[in-house]
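Entry 12.
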Amino acid sequence: MVTAVANQDAILQHLLKNASKTTFGRDHHFTDIKTAADYAQAIPVRDYEALSGYIEKIKNGQQNVLWKGKPMYFAKTSGTTSGTKYIPISKDSIHNHIDTARNALLCYMVESGNTDFADGKMIFLSGSPVLERIAGIPTGRLSGIVNHFIPGYLKGNQLPGYETNCIEDWETKLGKIVEETIDKDMRLISGIPPWVQMYFDWLLEKSGKSTIKSLFPKLQVIVQGGVNFEPYKAKMMESLGEHVDMIETFPASEGFFAFQDTLDQEGLLLNTNSGIFFEFVPADEIYNDNPTRLTLRDVKVGVNYALIINSNAGLWGYNIGDTVRFVSTEPYRLVVTGRTKHFISAFGEHVIGEEVEYAMLQAAQEHNAHIVEFTVAPMVQTTNEAPYHEWFVEFERRPENMQEFALSINNHLRKKNSYYEDLISGGILQPLKIRSMQKHGFIEYMKSQGKLGGQNKVPRLGNDRKIADAIQQWAEN
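Predicted 3D structure (tokens):
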């Protein structure tokens, strides 16, 4: 704990010193900042849109804008309101992405004693490694960029081949990946859970096997992250057929923030000594003009925080859009609880991702249901009835009684969120309703949005009907 806090203090001073002569550093008087409190006063919390003016300067060829020199890469990612985002990765910050992935595997090896997986084939479901150039800066998906840094001792066992990895269309690429891996000695598989599951589904269909472990008997490790794994766990365990160790990670284009360092403790170890100075804003204050900004020494277990980063990539007071909750401060371990922009509060209930995922998980276990994917939206405009939350759910295995299943979700959500409980008990809201989705309905929706595969995922919640209206055509009822 003491070391982590000291590391964070040292990183802040290092960041301020090294960026003091940049455009951003001069604009914000970095040379006058001495403490974290000074920093919070001088640097507002920003999202990508608020930082984009500086990004445009870099894209126009200027150097020393957000960090010294020019970025080594731009990580290209989709924004909810800003379209495509270009996240700088510097020569200093690239080590955060590469070294943390390595450390996650090394921790697993030490914890489990298992090193055999490195002797077999591995697959990292990723974006294309082909990069375009903007102002001379190589630009592409983070997973494609990282692909260039696979260490030599793993590269010989890496699948798929380069030509297949360069395919942009996800379904075409997945078909080729299945062809290349179906008869191989696969021992490690890495990717975002919904796309790993899609890979498993295609493998089982093509092979005729009943489980992945019968197809890949030496498969030992799944490395997954990017979304909460719990809603996908039951279906993936069924697909696997036997136990496979799981390593959970918390990467993003903006940085690799945390990873699972132990097999028997809840939470992910925060990456406190890797070029990122973290701040934490109580989640219900994130849209305030002057939110409370806490450093690592101030955080409490059990509180929901918006994660703010300041990094040697040149991101300052940057709201990455994720919320976290610490489960331990000795060491600092956290869980990801949702997205700051993904919530429902159409009636003042402020339901967040962690709450709907918890309610769904509990109900699914009680009713022996397997969930492929789901999202939730408010139904405000109703005729002669109270409004409600509408849950769009794709099932792998349906509950025997859908009404009881919906009531179970509703009851668990009432217990989890007191505002929702008050609205239900007061008759302002009626209990939630479930719309069953067609098989592959969410895949078809993501395809229609140009977001199939890669790092993309279906938002769990929307405070409007944008997603709900778009997926109506794949609903069964």
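Annotation: The longest helix spans residues 94-112. The mean pLDDT is 91.
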